[in-house]
Amino acid sequence: MPGPLRTSEPSRVETDWPTLLQDNLRTGGQGIRAAKTPDHVRWHVPMGCSVRSAPVLRAGVLYVTSMAGNLHAIDVEKGRQKWQFQAADHIHSTPSLSVHKVLFGCDSGKVYAVDCNSGKSLWEASAVAEVWTSPVIRDGVAYFGSADSRVYAVDVDTGLKRWTRELGGRVYSTAYVGEPHLYVGCGDGKVYCLDVSSGRTEWSTPTGNGIDSSPAVSGDTVLIGSEDFFFYALDANTGSVRWKYETGLGISSSPAVNEDLAVVGSKDGFLYALEIQSGQLRWKVQISDPVTAPPVISSGVVCIQAGGMQAFDIATGKLVWRAGLGGAVQSAPVLTGDAIYVATNDGEVYALE
Amino acid sequence: MNHRGCGGHREIVRTCTRPSPSEQVYPVKAALSSLVNEKYEAPKAPLKWPEAWRSLSGTFHPLGVTFMDRRTFVKASCLGSASLFLDGLDPKALGDVTMPEPPPIDIVHGLRPAKSALGMPGLFPGRVVEVSDSNSIVRNRVSQPVVRAMIERGMKELTGERSVAAAWTKFVEPSDIVGIKINPSGAPACCSSPEIVREIINGVQSAGVPVGNIVIYDRYEYQIDIGSYQALLPPGVRVVGIQDGLVDAGYDANVYCQATFFGEWENRSYMASIVAHGLTKIINVPTMKDHSASGVTGCLKNLGYGTFNNVARSHRSPYSFTDPLIGVMCSVEPLRSKAVLHIMDGMRQVWHGGPLTQVQDFIYQAGILYFGTDPVAIDTVELEAIEKKRREEGVPSVWEHDADSITSNSHEFYHDPKKNLFYRRPGHIASAGKLGLGIADLKRIDHGRIRLG
Fold first, then answer.
1. Which of A94, A214, B60, B184 has its CB 3.0 to 4.6 Å from that of A254, i.e. a possible disulfide?
2. Which residues contact B30 (CB under 8 A, 6 or more apart)?
3. What is the DSSP-derived secondary structure letter of residue A81?
4. Per residue in B226-254, pLDDT tens?
């Protein structure tokens, strides 16, 4: 295990991470050079209030939203704030980046588009209730769900609505947007497949309780957790259940996937690695806290913010390293070639090297 | 007395007869009159609740909200030094450890709503309806249809009404802003079950309350988030965390309890603004848990310590002043008047490690709900149930004050039920009874038991 974290200023190679779990495929840190065991803090920035969302990164700027309603742009070179934008209410939403815009939802029900360079508002789109989900941007359209039970598709340039679709419950699950379908979980306990161009419901599959987890897709399999304690693998074309795996409590964590494994946390305090094809357990490891945040897979390790920041060997589940940082409810780290950026529930943002 | 009907065997067992109307007055009000200096001033202009509510637009930034002209000032001058404790300082406490005397507690009330019989101890002092069903929790999952039947039966039994809607109408009306005070502090292992909260929402709506007038709330937003309540509750219901865990916003600087327990620099605890100003009625949904400092966390602790901030200062290992602070907080207006109904979630019963434990070894899937308007009576019954379970498990009473049981090692505490962080003080229940919040004498409690399956 490493010693106490210390501060220094070495050189780095940064990799963009423009949306939740890096990209729309939610590949996390895969393909990025293996995240080494960090042994020091390059910098840390106190936010002054809790951070529930995950940071995103582009061109050397880290974007972090906070419960005080601020979007912070932080220069990762020095850990200095470039600008901050004040929204109308708390922010739980992880931001997403589109060219020169950063988009995020707010508890006021608005989704904001803010200029990445100036920090000025470009447009606002309104839902009826809070937006905790992360806007997912694809082909000039941003897709997000709201506690008003609707999924919205808005134009990224203007914020004008393309379509809305009302589901049967609150939407706190961040959609997985592919072509031609969008997949999302819902508080009514169903997993929905919507047509991305119209919002039409293609299929829906019920689970035994509400869904807080966000889906991932591997091949033609949709993977998602439910508060009914089960982790589901669904046929992406029909919604039929291929397999489900029972954990000890509800699952609000969102899965990370690589070629053959889905890794997901459960509120029972375990992290599970399941074979996507069969649902067989490859390994599970006990975390000291309930796991509600999404894990992130990098080359060789899976990282999770629960009981501090921890990394486990992807093949065996053995602990590789652990940093005693504050926990997270829904935040996930940003992994780059040489650094790991972490936002914690106690309001600190760290650059680990 | 046995009842049979659809849905299986139903059994009602009463441990005593219902108190007569003459017994339903606050039992020790007179005894406290020489200690409590109460002055009530009428507000100059009545507050229009729905408008005030809507103007708050999602978050509560109460500091600066003042109602000085109708402040009620009560100085409960050293509640601990006189009758509350001289006639029964933890009378059941076991062991030779001498507990320190509690300090004086000053309280400043907020606006008391118009006089009503609904405030604690409410319409049915001393009455506790226990409904159990072994199918209500199976493999640690709460069954929505089973708890629906339990709540419907419990509400009808509590009120004597024949319809469920009529039962709910006893407590709420369409113009109310109804707060449902959950307990998410043990989430996810033991917290107010979303399934039960959903059914309470249905019940409140059956009385004509619009869904937008229903608020699920607790102090810590992140605990609500861990419980996934936001995602699991019906659209339109507001879910409010009073504070985000770092910023103590959301409290009214003019309504507070003040006492110095351990020399702390901030010796006030302020009432949540949503309680002081936003809500007109509160339905309390505590869980059934042992508590390392107060013995149990039930109706009273969920209300008192879930409404005021800065409460952890009342216990510093190994001592606790949760008695009398919990009861005193529950007596502060308008909390006292607004809390009209208590439904204790005993689906899971934590018999050691509360309030935060995640260790399933000490969480018994009891499948019970308690209904009442008297939080003292319900907590008295709950305390007996937890004591019974602890006896069955061969661990000391929560009244035990044994120096050898005290540990400062949290891992040891969470995994050894013979260890504890504090000398527990469950006497807060009796103290609350002496403040007129309900009946703490088990012999005078009308405890009805209904078994549905």
1. A214
2. none
3. E
4. 999 999 999 999 999 998 755 566 899 99
Q: Are strands A121-126 and A110-115 parallel, antiparallel or unpaired?
A: antiparallel
Q: Report helix, strand or coil for B12.
A: strand
Half-sphere exposure (CA, 13 Å, Cβ side) for B73? 2
Q: Indicate the helix (H) or strand (E) that contains B239.
A: strand B238-243
Considering only the beta carbons, identify the residue of B231, B244, B358 that sits closest to A172.
B231
Instruction: Give the residue among A14, A20, A11 at the shortest CA–CA distance from A32.
Output: A14
Say how far apart CA A223 and CA A276 lie, in whole Å.
Answer: 8
Q: For CA atoms A166, A168, A173, A178, give the dihedral sign.
A: negative
Question: Which residues of chain B neighbour A92 with C-beta distances below 8 Å?
Answer: 225
Residue of B nearest to A287 (CA): B358
CA dist B422 and B402 (Å) reads 10
Q: Of B448, B449, B369, which Cα lies nearest the Cα of B203?
A: B369
| DSSP codes joined into one string, A276-287 | TTT--EEEEEE-
**CB-CB under 8 Å, B140 with A50:** no
> Does the CB of A207 have a partner CB in chain B at under 8 Å?
no
Q: In which residue ranges of chain A is pLDDT below 50?
A: 1-13
Contacts of A286 in chain B (CB under 8 A): none
* Interchain contact, B231 vs A330, CB within 8 Å: no
Measured between alpha carbons, how far is residue A261 from residues A73, A244, B171 in Å? 34, 14, 52
Q: Measure the CA–CA gap between A262 and A295, rounded to whole angstroms.
A: 10
* Residues in chain A within 8 Å Cβ distance of B234: 169-170
Q: Which amino acid is at B208?
A: G
Closest C-alpha to A40, from A3, A76, A78: A3
Ordered alpha helix ranges (H), B60-143: 83-86
> What tokens were used for B272?
């949540």
Dump pLDDT digits (tens) for B119-170.
999 999 999 999 999 999 999 999 999 999 999 999 999 999 999 999 999 9
CA geometry: angle B268, B221, A176, nearest 5 deg: 165
Mutate to test the interface with A, among B139, B222, B237, B414 (most CBs of A within 10 A): B222
Query: Helix, strand or coil for residue B402?
Result: coil
CA atoms within 13 A on the CB side of B431: 32
The two tokens of residue A314 are: 């992807």
* Dihedral (Cα; A244, A246, A250, A254), 10-degree rounding: -50
With a cut of 50, which residues of chain B have pLDDT below it? 1-89
Contact A106, A90 (CB under 8 A): yes
d(CA B360, CA B358) in angstroms, rounded, equals 6
Indicate which of A149, A150, A227 best probes the interface with B, i.e. most B CBs within 10 Å of its own CB: A227
The answer, for A333 touching chain B at a CB cutoff of 8 Å, is: no
**Which residues on A lie below 8 Å from B140 (Cβ)?**
229, 248-249
Q: What's the rounded Cα separation, in Å, for the pair A233 and A210?
A: 16
Q: Cα torsion for A327, A90, B210, B230, to the nearest 10°?
A: -20
A318's CB contacts (< 8 A; 6+ apart) are: A285, A312
First to last CA, chain B: 16
